[in-house]
Design goal:
The protein has five helices and seven strands. 29% of the residues are buried. The strands form two sheets. Strands 2-1-3-6-7 form a five-stranded parallel β-sheet, sandwiched between helices. Strands 4-5 form a two-stranded antiparallel ribbon. Helices cover 46% and strands 23% of the residues. The chain is α/β, with parallel strands linked by helices. The longest helix has 14 residues. The protein has one domain: Rossmann fold (3-Layer(aba) Sandwich), CATH 3.40.50.2300.
Length: 131
């Protein structure tokens, strides 16, 4: 399952790639611009994991744009617990229910991706994943 991981923190991205990248196709990006370009040129992505902040904007706005253009993609939003509580209404409006605590811990991300592999054949493309 090819996954696009987006965050402003390059060190965290590299850490995730070192831990997960050898077992699962993982592409890293730091900005909305990069993500949109990658998605325009490849139909092979299945999951986009975006943290709250990206280099040129908001992870929520990015995932909203992705939902509009590529509704088949599984979208996962990462934020700190207290931020998730504040953003809950916006998350509901986006029908974006996968959540992780931020910063993404590679082990947690790994578990989520395994879980999503099992769900991808299901007709429902979104589920609540406890953070």
């Amino acid at each position: 399952m090819k996954t696009l991981l987006v965050d402003i923190d390059r060190a965290m991205l590299q850490h995730c790639a070192a831990r997960i990248g050898s077992r699962q196709p993982l592409v890293l990006a730091t900005s909305k611009t990069q993500v949109m370009e990658l998605l325009r040129h490849s139909a092979s992505y299945e999951v986009v994991v975006a943290c709250e902040r990206v280099a040129d904007g908001s992870g929520l706005a990015l995932l909203d744009d992705i939902h509009t253009r590529w509704p088949h993609l599984i979208r996962v939003f990462c934020a700190e617990r207290q931020r998730l509580a504040m953003l809950r209404t916006r998350l509901g409006a986006l029908r974006l229910r996968h959540t992780l605590n931020y910063p993404v811990k590679p082990v947690k991300l790994e578990l989520l991706l395994v879980h999503l592999q099992h769900l991808r054949t299901a007709t429902l493309r979104t589920r609540i994943v406890p953070g």
